[in-house]
Each structure stands twice: as structure tokens, then as C-alpha cells.
Amino acid sequence: MGTATELAPGASAELLLDVMDVRSAKLLRLCAIPHRFDTDVLHTLAPELERSEIEDRCTEFSRLSFISADNDGWALHDGVRRHFFSQWLESQFAQEFASASGRLAAFFRARIERSRGEAAETARRRHMFHLLGVDQETGFQEFVLLMRRARGNRLFSECSQLIRLVHEYDGFLASRFRLWLTYHEAKLFADLRDLERAETGYHEVLNDADSSPEQRSATYVRLGYVYNERRNWDEAIRFYERGLALAENTESMRHTLPRILHDLGAAYRDKGDLQRAEELLKRSIKLAEEDDNLANLALAYNGLGRLALKRRDVRAAIGAFEKSLDALNRNEDVFRMAQVYNNLGFAYADLPDWTRSDEYFRKSLDIKSKAGDTLGQASALSGLARVQASRGDLKAAIDSSTRAIDLFAEMRDQCNAALVKHNRGKLFRRMSERERARKDFTEAIEVLRTLERHDEAAAAAGDLEALDARGGLPWWVWAAIVLFSLFVLLLLVVLVVALVETHRGSSRTASDVLVSVAARQCAIHGS
Q1: Is residue 515 predicted with pLDDT exceeding 50?
Q2: Rounded to whole angstroms, how far apart are CA atoms 397 and 403?
Q3: What's residue 525's pLDDT?
Q4: Per-residue model confidence as pLDDT tens digits over 221-266
Q5: Cα–Cα dist 205/186, whole Å
Q6: How many CB atoms lie within 10 A of CB 432?
Q7: Residues 6+ away with beta carbon under 8 Å from 8
Q8: How far apart are CA 225 and CA 263, in angstroms?
């Protein structure tokens, strides 16, 4: 048999617990339920113990090799904690585990109320985690609320933390919660533009026999988003329609109809079927008004505004965007106003009203920057670059474009990064920086062709061809040609003068003639 040091971390800790007194061993196992512990957490776990005994136990535990310390208290090493936590999830410990989790959930709920900033956010996550150990229904509802808030603020690292926490209950979660977790994780992959992993997660939900009509409808719609991002409108529409059919036939899901109708209408709009798009968006508005659902109403009017922009009906677009803003104001949804501001920026640019356009792009950029919305900032900056270029401030336009390209690249949005790079190339061309323009055009063409964005790639290729046709050779070649031409011209002048002198019968030698010509040239330049 190997020694204890050769065993897995959990097994090594088990050997140590075997030689501990019963009270210490039990308390140490309880320490695996929270992620970190201090005297307050331990007293919550074991309220029957005196505070002095709790402090003695903390001192004792702090000497163990598999416990680490920092300013927030102590924590079991990951491998040891996983070992003991998995034991707590076994059925024979269910009652004791639920009781301890309930005390911890109450403890962290109280901490939320007296904390601010990151401390409060940490307490919210821990409250949700322990609530799952008491009541999966209530705990998962809290998880969904926290996810919705984090996604709304584009806090994707926060979303990842929440998902990792719930995954600690894998094997313990009821199947419907397990499927919803897979669904939410796939949504996060889509947010991060990892469409392959998102699609895999969605199909995992659809292929599970335990998935409910609600889960299947929501998943079909999300698959529509995936194909929408890939610009495969027909597939996107097919999945949206399957999600819509399930929602229409399930009473508990009728509240989702305005959103699905909007998404379906947007796909038809992008496909080019504007009449069908308008029908669906107006149905979405009607249902949202009936339900007094301000969020969906704002979304539908925003979609209708984008449809009007596609029809070049700028005034109608502005009217729809203003109705969207009104709904968002009534719903006190400041974050989503940024997207509508961005669309208003494009609408006023089409008039063109550069002052109003600049105002709305900057409003959008301010909100997106404060919220940490990387893609939103990139979109606002690309719109702002258009305004700056139209006003003749090419350097500012190039700076805004460069920032937009970097942000799109950070979010792995190759398509929009390439589109903005094409536009930046046109700005470089206006500044006569031909080599930088050529580099941007070439790189944009390569990416757009890879992504099968053939129309956009052709437009960039046309600009590259025009650049070469217009400019031809580099500046230094032209300079060399000019200098050579001047040299040839000088030689011709010398020869002509020499011939004239010879014709007059001058007795001077050729070298005298050349000297005379040179003297005359010097006199001309000196006069």
C-alpha cells in the first residue's frame, strides 16, 4: 500500500480525519460546504459551539497543509473540498446538508444587505449557491435572476462564475435544472461568439428526452440566433418558426410570443422580405401592448425602426426609435437605451444631420463604456467614425475606427472588424496614405472571403483595384522618373545649343561650346 502522501488529496484528508476527535472532524467536513470560512461562517455552521471553541478550531485548522489562508479567512484546497462536498450531496446526508445550507443562505443574505460593491456581489453569489442546497427550485430561480442581470450588463465573466458554481451540484440537480443549466451555458458561449459550442449545447437540450416544451421552444429560438449570426437566414427562420409553434401551443409560454415574433421578423428583414418582416413586427407590438410588456414593446419598435432604415424611410425610422426610447424610459432600462441611441445615430447620419448623429453615438458610447459592453462600444465608435469622416476630421475618424477594430477583435467578431477595417482603408486613401489603405483593403478582403461575405469582399476588392488604377507606382518611383526626365531635358538643351553654335561657324571647340552653355545656364539661375 502506498503512503498517505501518494494518495489523492481527499483520501489523504480522510486519513487525517480518522485520527481527529469527533467534533473537530465533523466541523472540518462542514467547512467543505462553503467556499471559504471564517469564525462567523463556522459559527453559522455549528451554532451549538461557543465562540471561543470556534476560534480554537480555526487556529487548529489553519495549521493543516490542505488549508490556505488570506484576508477573507480560510479555504480547503480545491481537491479536498471537492472530495468532501461530493459526500455531502449523497442521499444519507441530505437532511443535514439542507439544514447547514439553509443557515449559510440566511447568513449571506444578511451580508448582502450590509455590504457594498464587490463584497455584496460575492455575497449574492454565495447566497444563490447555498440556496440551491436548500431548495433547488428557489435556488435556480435566483441563479436565473443573477444571470439575467449579468448578461444584461454584458458581465460575461460574472456569468461564467455563476455557471461554475451551479455545476458544483452536477449529479445532484434535477434533470430539468440540469437542462436549463446546459441551455444557459450555451447562451453564454453564443454571447462570447463561440457558436460551435453554443450549437452543441443547444442540441444537447433538444436531444434529451426529458426536455420540456418550454425548454425546446427556448432552445429552438436560440439556435435561430446562432444561424442568424452566420447569416443563414433560411435556417434561422426555420428554427424561429419551430420555437414559435411550440410557444403558441403552450399556455405557459404565451408571454414569450412578442419576443419570438420580433426575432422572426428581424430574420425576414435581414433576408430582404420586408413585407413579411413588417407583418411580424407589428404583431409583436400588438401583443406587447396587450400584455403591457414594456421591454418587448421597446424591442419591437426598435426592430421596426431598423426595417424603416432599410427602406430608406429615415423619418419613419426616427419615429419608431423614439417610441422604443419612450418604452425603455418608462421601464427604467437605461442600458438598452444605448442600442436605440446607436440606431438614432445612424438614422440622423442618413439625413444627414451630423450634429444629432454625433450626439446619439456619444450617448450610446458613454452608456456602453460604463457598462463594460465591448461590442456596444465598438458599434458606437464605428458610427462615430462615420460622422467624423463626414466632417473632414480624418485623423479622429481613423482613431475611432482603430479602437472599434480592436474591440471587435477582442470579442472575436471577425466580420465587423473586417468591415470597419475596409472603411478605415478608405480614410487612409483620402489622406493619401496609400500603403496603409492597401493593407486594410487586403486584410479586409481576406477575412470577408473566408467568412463567405461575398458582397462586402467584392466592395473591398473594388476599392483596392481603384487604388492601384488611380495611383499605379509608389511615390519614390514617380520621383525617380521626374529626376530622370529633368536630366534628359538638360542634355537635350545642351545638344541644341551646341548645334546652333556649330551652325554659326564658330571656331570654338566642342568643349568651349559646352563651357559657354554652362555659363549661360548659371547666369540664368543667378539672375
Answers
A1: no
A2: 10
A3: 45
A4: 999 999 999 889 999 999 999 999 999 998 888 999 999 999 999 9
A5: 10
A6: 9
A7: 79, 83
A8: 8
Which class is 4-133 in CATH? Answer: mainly alpha
CA 14 to centroid of chain Cα atoms: 44
In sign, the C-alpha dihedral spanning 467, 469, 474, 475 is negative
**DSSP letter string, 374-398:** HHHHHHHHHHHHHHHHHTT-HHHHH
Q: CB 452: neighbour CB atoms within 10 A? A: 9
Question: In this model, does residue 21 exceed pLDDT 70?
Answer: yes
Q: Is the pLDDT of residue 473 over 80?
A: no
How far is Cα 482 from Cα 501, in angstroms, rounded to an integer? 29
Cis peptide before 352 (omega within 30 of 0): yes
In this predicted model, what pLDDT tens digit does every residue of 113-153 receive, in sequence order? Answer: 998 888 899 999 999 999 999 999 999 999 999 999 998 87
Residues 474-485 have a mean pLDDT of: 61
Q: How many residues does the chain have?
A: 527
Cell of 257: 410570443
Q: Provide the residue ranges of all domains of the chain, joining segments of one domain with +.
A: 4-133, 486-526
169 by Cβ neighbours in 10 Å (0-12 / 13-18 / 19+) ranks as buried
Cell matching residue 18: 480518522
Query: Which H or E element spans position 76?
Result: strand 73-76
